[in-house]
Amino acid sequence: MDTPTLILQAVVVTLSLLIPPLADGIERKVRAKIQFRVGPPTILQTFYDLRKLAVKELIVPKGAELTLTISSIALVTAVTATASTIWIVAQDVFTPANLALTVLLISGSHVLISLTSLTTSNPYAVVGSFRKILLQVVNEVGFFVGVLYSITALKNLTSDTSPQLITSYVISVALVVITTYVSSGRVPYDIHEAEPELASGVLIELSGPLLSIYSYTHILKKYLLSFITAYLILTPFTSLTNPAIKLAANVTFGLMIYLSYGFTAALLGRTRIDLSLKTLTTTTLIIISLLVILSWLSSY
């Protein structure tokens, strides 16, 4: 393997590990300013928080001996998904097989995070996990359809610029934006954490290293979703640029999308659990129906 490839791999791994916590720290500062709070003292606060939790005593919840194992696997899956996606973008090899791998890793990370809470015996954690699973069942369908339509439209736009195809691309990207926001677990779709109630949902039994692993995994997943959204939006404008410039543009724009999601969450209010799920289901079905109709029109 040549030296430039090794250097690029090192850069990709470093970006995968360090940028998500940095993005979370910046989001916390921005959100505090919007809400007229002091907020964390530095944008590096997330690093400090994760380290502080990681060095504490490991306490495994009663009846949850598998929690540590599943949490560790979830973290490895999230790191792999983030690094592989950034590498795919850097090499510009977003083939159907790579797309399937990315979706599989993201879905696997979601499932493992949910299993982390199901392995505890706390009823609040179990309820939070089932809420998360129910939400993701609907959301994953929309995410997969949105990414699939977006990638297909991007490939076809090189030879076809019909209004139907452009409209299909815009709508599919909009679906990806909606589903990635929901997957990030921000307001009002943080129902798995039971924030409107007195309990802490899936987090109630986690502390110390377990909470550090869970939090880091969740942060990695949030940035990965923002990065994928950035790639789908920027590709029409960066298709002919240098791979290094494309990678830098996607990493930067992914950070901007991450912050815009945080800005949106700071302005939104909470909603009822059943209402948020119904709204997501209705919106997803409408957008998918529009994409199917546009695909049918494009075939004639």
TrEMBL record:
It holds the Pfam family NADHdh. It is a multi-pass membrane protein. The chain crosses the membrane at residues 66-90, 97-113, 133-154, 166-183, 223-241, 247-268, 280-298. It is found in: Membrane. Keywords: Membrane, Transmembrane, Transmembrane helix. This is Hydrogenase. GO terms for cellular component: plasma membrane. The keyword Transmembrane helix applies.
